[in-house]
Specification:
The complex is a heterotrimer.
Chain A (H helix, E strand, L loop, with lengths): L1 H26 L1 H27 L9 H13 L10 H9 L2 H6 L4 H34 L13 H28 L3 H19 L13 H5 L8 H8 L4 H37 L1
Chain B lengths: L1 H23 L2 H29 L7 H21 L1 H4 L1 H6 L4 H5 L5 H6 L8 H18 L5 H28 L9 H5 L1 H7 L8 H10 L7 H8 L9 H6 L2 H24 L2
Chain C lengths: L3 E14 L3 H10 L2 E15 L4 E5 L6 H8 L7 E6 L8 H5 L2 E5 L11 H11 L4 H15 L14 H11 L7 E5 L7 H18 L2 E5 L3 H7 L2 E6 L2 E7 H7 L1 E7 L7 H5 L11 E6 L3 H11 L2 E7 L3 H12 L1
Parallel strand pairs in C: 3-7, 3-8, 5-6, 6-7
Antiparallel strand pairs in C: 1-2, 1-4, 8-9, 10-11, 10-12
The chains are: A mainly alpha, B mainly alpha, C alpha/beta.
Chain lengths: ~280, ~270, ~325
C-alpha cells in the first residue's frame, strides 16, 4: 500500500502533464475537426493515385491493393504519431530561456519531457483515431465505396499484435521527437535538423509511399532504419503483410530502436545542458 | 490613382528588401533552411519516381508528363509561399498576439502591409528543385514550342502564383474566427501541390469538379499543361478552354481579397 | 469644437464559457455556452485640442477597449465618436494618418531591423515628405537622445531604450493626437522621468493632444491636468487631479469622550461598521472646511488632523470601494 502510494506520488507530475495536454487539446475543437477533414482528403487523394497506378501494373506488385488501403487509412489515422514536428510549448521554453525553470524542478529533465512528449504525440492521435476509423471502416461502405474502405485485420492474432506494435510505435516516435526537442538547444544546427525531419520522416516511415513499393535494391536499407518502426511495422502487421509469426521479432526491433534512441537522447541532453549552463553564465 | 499604385508598389519593394536584409543577418541559418527546403520538397519527387519505377506508367501518362506537372506546381507554390508569408503566419503572429492592431493603426491597406511583411528567401530551395524537374521534363517531352505556348506558360505561372497566394489569404481570413492553426487549409495548399502533381483525369468526378470550379487548381496546372503537351484531353476540354483556364486563378485571387475585406469587418466589430 | 467627441459609447463582447475539468473540455467540444460582457456602458467625454488627459481605472475596466475604438481598430456596438471631424472606424486609413499610438507592452518597430531603418520604413508607410521627415527625425533623435541607438537592431534594445524609440516612431508623421497605452510599464525610474518630460514637452510646445492610460499615479500627477476614471465600462469621474485629491480627504478626530455623532456624521466614517471610540476617522468628499467647523462646533474635540493622502492611495481606495 505504502509502496504503491509512493509510486503514485513519484509518477504524479508525469501523469498530470499528460492530463493537461489532453485538456488543452480538447479546447481546440475547430483544430480537431480540421485535422480530421485534412486527413480524410489526403487519404482519398492517395487512394485515387494508387487506383490509377495499380490499374496500369504490368507485373503483380509486392503488396496487394487491399494492403495498400490498410496502409493509407491507418497511416492517416495515426498521422499525428509521426515524429516530424516539435511541441511548440517546449520549443518556446527553450527559445526564451524558460528552460532554466525546468532545471529548477526536482524531476529528471529527460523523464519529464519524455512524458510530455508522449502526451503531445498520443493526445491528438487518440482524438482523431475514432472518427477516422469510423469513416474508413463503416461510412465508406455505406455510401457504396466499399472498394476504398479499410479492410478487416488479417486475423485476431494480427489485430492483437498490431495493438502491441502500436504501443511500441508511440514510445519510439516520442523518443525520436525528444531528439528534436533536445536539438533545439543548439539554436542554428538544431533548427536545421528539425527542418529536415518533416521531409525525411514521412518517406522513411512509409507514409508517403508504402515502403515495400520502393525499388527492390533499397529494401535492405529501408528495413534497417528506425523510422520504419513509427508506421510501416504496425500497418503491415494489421494487414498481414508481416505474418503474425514474424510480428514478435518486428516489435522487439521497434523496442530496441527505442532504447538506442533514448540512450542517445540522454547523452545529447547532458551535453546540451552543459551548453545551457555556459550560455547562462 | 496610378500615382498611388506606384507609391504602394515602391513601399512594397522597400519592405521586401528590408525583409531580405534582415534574413541575411543569419547567413548560416538561411543556407541551412534553403537546403532543408530543397531536400524536404525533393523527397516528394523521389517518391513519384519510385512509383514509376515500380509500376512503369500511370495509365496513359508518362513520367516526363507527370514531372512537368510536378515541376510547374512546385515552382509556382514556392514563389507564392515565399511571397505570402505574412498571410501564412497571420493567425499565430498577428491575430493571436494582437499585433494586427498595429497594422490597422497605419494608414495603408492591410493587404499591402502583410504582403510586405516577409519575403522568405529560403523557399528558393523548393523553387530550384521544381525548376530542375521541370527542365528535365521539358527536355524529355520534346515539346513543339511556339509563341502561344510560351505565353500560356508565363500566364499560367502568374495565375498559379496568384492562386496559391489566394489560398494563403483565405487561410489568414479564417484565423479571424479560429486562431488555432487551421490544418484544413493545408489540404488546399500542401495538399493542392500533391494533388496537382498527378493529372486531374485520374481523380473521381467530384474531386475534378471541385478542383475546376470551386478551387480552380486544375485550371492553373492540368488544363494549360494539356495544351503545352499538344495532346487531346481525356476529359474532353477544348483547346480554347485550356488556354483560358488560368484566368480562373486570377478570379480566385480577387475572390480571396473580397473575403479578406469581409474578415476585417468581422474582426473590427468583435475585437480580439 | 472638441477634437475628440465621444457620446454614449458601448461595446459588448461575446465570450465562450469554459467549464472546468476534463469532462468540461469534452462537452465544450459539442456545446459551447456564450456570455455577453459589456466592456463599455455608455461612455461620454470630449477632449479639446492640446489637452493632456489621464485615463485610469482598474485592470479590465474598459480602458483598452476605449483606446481601440478611438484609434479606429474596433467598431463599437453603440454610440458616437468623432475625432478630427471623422468617425474613426468609418475611414480607418485617413483617421490613423493623423494619430500616433504607443502600446507599452508591444513595439511597433521591426524586430530585426536597426532602429533608423524602422523609421525610414514608417516614413514611407505614412507618406512623409523627405524634407519634413529629415527635420522631424533629427529633432526626435535629439530630444529623445537616440543617436547612439540608431544602428542597433530593435531586438537588442533595453525596454527603456525601445520605449523611447517607439515614442519617436509614433511621432514621425507628426500626428496631432497621441494615444499612450501604459507607456511607462516596466520602465526604471530614469527612463520614466525622461519619457514624462518628453511627453509634457510634446504637449506644451507642439500642442499635441495626449490621452494616456497608466497605472502609475506619478505619471498622472506629473503630466495630466485632467483625469478620467473608468470602471465596469462606466466613466465615474472626469475632473482635475485636485478634484480627485479633495474628493477623498481623510479627517482624523480625537474627541474628549466617545461622541454621540449625528446620523449624517456617522455615515461619513471611513469604516461605518466599526464600534465608536474616542478616535474617529472620516472620509470627507467635499467641503472639508465646513465639515471641520461643524465637528468642532458640535462636539468636544481634543485634536483634529486633515490627512494629505498620496494620490496612489486615494486611487487604490477608490478602486476598492468601486468593487
Amino acid at each position: 500500500m505504502n509502496a504503491s502510494a509512493g509510486l503514485m506520488l513519484r509518477l504524479a507530475p508525469y501523469l498530470s502533464v499528460v492530463a493537461i495536454r489532453f485538456k488543452i487539446l480538447l479546447q481546440y475543437r475547430a483544430a480537431a475537426l480540421a485535422g480530421f477533414g485534412t486527413q480524410l482528403f489526403w487519404g482519398l487523394i492517395k487512394i485515387m493515385v494508387f487506383v490509377a497506378f495499380y490499374a496500369s501494373a504490368t507485373s503483380p506488385p509486392p503488396m496487394s491493393f487491399a494492403q495498400v488501403l490498410v496502409y493509407i487509412w491507418l497511416g492517416q489515422a495515426l498521422l499525428a504519431l509521426l515524429p516530424w514536428n516539435v511541441d511548440s510549448e517546449i520549443a518556446t521554453h527553450i527559445r526564451t530561456g524558460g528552460v532554466a525553470y525546468e532545471l529548477l524542478r526536482p524531476l529528471d529533465l529527460y523523464g519529464f519531457w519524455y512524458a510530455r512528449t508522449i502526451a503531445f504525440r498520443s493526445a491528438p492521435t487518440l482524438l482523431r483515431l475514432g472518427p477516422m476509423l469510423a469513416f474508413a471502416y463503416l461510412f465508406l461502405p455505406l455510401i457504396g465505396l466499399s472498394e476504398w474502405a479499410l479492410p478487416d485485420p488479417a486475423g485476431g492474432l494480427s489485430l492483437l499484435l498490431f495493438v502491441c506494435s502500436l504501443g511500441a510505435t508511440l514510445l519510439l516516435a516520442s523518443a525520436i521527437t525528444m531528439i528534436m526537442h533536445i536539438a533545439l538547444l543548439w539554436t542554428v544546427s538544431g533548427d536545421g535538423f528539425n527542418r529536415l525531419m518533416p521531409g525525411i520522416v514521412p518517406v522513411l516511415s512509409g507514409l508517403t509511399i508504402p515502403l515495400p513499393l520502393f525499388p527492390d535494391w533499397m529494401q535492405t536499407f529501408l528495413y534497417w532504419q528506425p523510422f520504419r518502426g513509427v508506421a510501416d511495422v504496425p500497418l503491415r502487421i494489421y494487414s498481414g503483410h508481416i505474418a503474425a509469426t514474424e510480428a514478435g521479432f518486428e516489435i522487439l526491433l521497434q523496442l530496441a530502436w527505442t532504447a538506442i534512441i533514448i540512450a542517445f537522447g540522454y547523452w545529447l541532453l547532458i551535453r546540451g545542458r552543459r551548453k545551457l549552463v555556459v550560455q547562462g553564465g | 490613382m496610378a500615382d498611388s499604385i506606384a507609391n504602394d508598389f515602391a513601399l512594397y519593394l522597400k519592405m521586401v528588401s528590408q525583409s531580405i536584409r534582415s534574413q541575411l543577418q543569419y547567413r548560416l541559418s538561411f543556407l541551412l533552411m534553403s537546403i532543408g527546403n530543397f531536400v524536404t520538397s525533393g523527397v516528394e519527387a523521389f517518391g513519384v519516381w519510385a512509383l514509376f519505377d515500380r509500376f512503369g506508367t500511370l495509365g496513359q501518362w508518362s513520367l516526363p508528363q507527370i514531372a512537368f506537372l510536378y515541376g510547374l506546381v512546385n515552382c509556382v507554390f514556392a514563389v507564392a509561399e515565399g511571397l505570402a508569408r505574412g498571410f501564412d503566419i497571420f493567425g499565430s503572429e498577428f491575430v493571436k498576439t494582437g499585433n494586427f492592431d498595429r497594422l490597422l493603426l497605419r494608414p495603408r491597406s492591410t493587404v499591402l502591409q502583410l504582403a510586405g511583411h516577409e519575403f522568405q528567401i529560403h523557399r528558393i530551395g523548393r523553387f530550384v528543385q521544381g525548376a530542375v524537374v521541370f527542365g528535365w521534363a521539358v527536355w524529355m517531352l520534346g515539346i513543339d514550342w511556339h509563341a502561344g505556348k510560351v505565353l500560356l506558360l508565363v500566364f499560367t505561372f502568374v495565375a498559379g502564383v496568384a492562386f496559391f497566394y489566394a489560398l494563403f489569404i483565405i487561410q489568414a481570413t479564417f484565423s479571424f474566427w479560429a486562431t488555432e492553426s487551421l490544418e484544413i487549409m493545408n489540404t488546399l495548399t500542401y495538399g493542392g501541390v500533391e494533388t496537382a502533381q498527378y493529372p486531374l483525369a485520374i481523380y473521381r468526378k467530384v474531386f475534378r469538379r471541385f478542383f475546376t470550379y470551386i478551387v480552380p487548381l486544375g485550371c492553373i496546372t492540368y488544363f494549360p499543361a494539356i495544351a503545352v503537351f499538344g495532346i487531346d484531353d481525356p476529359l474532353g476540354s477544348s483547346r480554347l478552354f485550356q488556354y483560358m483556364a488560368p484566368c480562373a486563378g486570377l478570379g480566385f485571387f480577387a475572390a480571396a481579397i473580397f473575403l479578406w475585406r469581409f474578415g476585417i469587418r468581422h474582426y473590427t466589430s468583435t475585437g480580439s | 469644437m472638441a477634437q475628440i467627441l465621444v457620446e454614449n459609447l458601448e461595446k459588448r463582447y461575446r465570450i465562450a464559457e469554459r467549464k472546468p475539468g476534463l469532462w468540461g473540455a469534452v462537452s465544450g467540444l459539442v456545446n459551447r455556452v456564450y456570455r455577453d460582457v459589456d466592456a463599455l456602458h455608455g461612455v461620454s467625454f470630449s477632449i479639446e485640442p492640446g489637452e493632456l488627459v489621464g485615463y485610469i481605472g482598474p485592470n479590465g475596466a474598459g480602458k483598452s477597449t476605449t483606446i481601440k475604438i478611438l484609434s479606429g481598430i474596433l467598431v463599437p456596438s453603440g454610440g458616437h465618436c468623432i475625432i478630427n471631424n471623422r468617425i474613426p472606424w468609418k475611414d480607418r486609413v485617413a483617421h490613423v494618418a493623423g494619430i500616433g499610438v504607443v502600446f507599452g507592452q508591444r513595439t511597433q518597430l521591426w524586430w530585426d531591423l536597426p532602429v533608423i531603418e524602422s523609421f525610414d520604413l514608417l516614413k514611407d508607410i505614412y507618406r512623409v515628405l523627405p524634407l519634413a521627415y529629415r527635420t522631424i527625425r533629427d529633432e526626435l533623435i535629439t530630444l529623445l537622445d537616440l543617436e547612439a541607438l540608431l544602428d542597433t537592431p530593435v531586438r537588442q534594445l533595453s525596454l527603456g531604450q525601445r520605449m523611447r524609440c517607439d515614442l519617436a516612431a509614433s511621432l514621425i508623421h507628426q500626428p496631432d493626437i497621441l494615444f499612450l497605452d501604459e507607456p511607462t510599464i516596466g520602465l526604471d525610474a530614469v527612463a520614466k522621468l525622461s519619457l514624462r518630460h518628453f511627453v509634457k514637452r510634446q504637449n506644451r510646445e507642439r500642442g499635441t493632444t495626449v490621452l494616456l492610460t497608466t497605472h502609475d499615479m506619478d505619471d498622472i500627477e506629473f503630466l495630466c491636468d485632467r483625469l478620467m476614471l473608468i470602471n465596469h465600462g462606466t466613466l465615474l469621474m472626469d475632473g482635475t487631479v485636485n478634484d480627485l485629491r479633495s474628493s477623498a480627504r481623510r479627517v482624523v478626530v480625537d474627541f474628549e469622550v466617545v461622541p454621540a455623532l449625528s446620523p449624517e456624521h456617522l455615515a461619513l466614517r471611513l469604516d461605518p461598521g466599526a464600534p465608536l471610540t474616542e478616535r474617529v476617522e472620516f472620509q470627507v468628499s467635499s467641503q472639508v472646511p465646513a465639515f471641520v467647523s461643524a465637528i468642532t462646533a458640535g462636539y468636544p474635540v481634543r485634536d483634529l488632523t486633515v490627512e494629505h493622502q498620496p494620490i496612489e492611495e486615494i486611487v487604490a481606495d477608490l478602486y476598492r470601494r468601486l468593487k
